Amino acid sequence: MLNIKIPLFFIDSDYHNFYEKARMKITWRLNLILLIFLPILMLTLYQSGESAATPTLFGFLLCLFLFFWMKKTNTYKFSAIAHSLFGAFLCVFVLIFFPESYHFVDIAWMLVIILHTYFTLGRKWGAAVLIFSIVSTLYYLFFMLNISLDLNRQLDKNQVIALAINFSICMLVIAYYIRQFLKVNAFAENKYIELTSALEDKNKEKTVLLKEIHHRVKNNLQVITSLLRLQSKEITEEKYLKLYEESINRVVAMAMIHDKIFKNPDVAKIDLEDYIQSLVKDLIRSYSLSTEVEVEIKSYINEVGAKSLVPIALIFNELITNSLKHAYRNMDKGKICINISKVNDQIELNYSDNGDWDENTSPNSLGLDLIDSLTKQLNGTCDRKVLEKGTSFNFFFQEEDLN
Fold this sequence. Notes:
By secondary structure, the chain is of the alpha+beta class. The protein is 66% helix and 12% strand. A five-stranded mixed sheet has the order 2-4-5-7-6, covered by helices on one side. Strands 1-3 form a two-stranded antiparallel ribbon. Helix 7 packs antiparallel against helix 8 and helix 7 packs antiparallel against helix 9.
């Protein structure tokens, strides 16, 4: 991690944010650099008879005022605005109203002002100063450049020295800004890596914890299943034994969900098709069907959110259970078709079997009531149709409700 090393002459800042400290630091140091070098430049320009010495004097007086202002307030924004606005207007003023001066460095000073504005005041201020500088420079190039070239003259020694000092100051400030940009970017990169690493560690911890919770829930549900099976051995009446078996299958369906989540790398998403295949095999084995049941699944969505998987799984449990109980007792071979598709922001789930139902499921049966209740829980709708050969259910859910 990068730390800002504050020199002894740097004022105490109340800013705790790294970027605010960096802006405070760069504004203060720019002001100090100008305070030191502007008087030297001003005297050199004055001795060589350059009229630009007067604007340089005003720039020095402004920097002197801002020095005491920053010492008193420990803030940078007013000074940054003053540097940007006064600096931009001063560069343009010298560029346009002093055609007899050499303007080799003025464009570079405009770059300094633009960099300073972007760094300390942000994108909007920086863009405004950039546009102002571009328009002013274009005006100079189209209307003032020829006049300036006509007034060109041989530079004497003092003028060359003044130009060299001006250029050196400008390059020094540009180099300092580039260094600060690189330093801030390096800090941001290191901070990003540090935060990313911390988040990854926390996510791993939470994933392990969630997996452990799902594992414990699965174990508890398996204990409940075992207790129900033990209890069912004392039941002699077939009617009540079937009710117990249905309850056991519902608990097994939920236990299977938590087992899938526990074994899945991503605890937030579960492969729905894989879960349905496992559920069908388990239910067929539970009902000890002699009929061969083919299951055809076409899914155009890969995964569903773990929070919506429990009601979805219980819906499938009821649908498949009904088919196995009522449709295939008198058939050699049966087929269950499941089609899950996406239309715009809606998920359409179609379930159908080709069974020869040996008894009608009452519209008010517990299974259908449970399906209706679970569908409403997911803010969906359900349409049941009894076909000439089999039955079908069409469900419609909003995509966001299954994530």
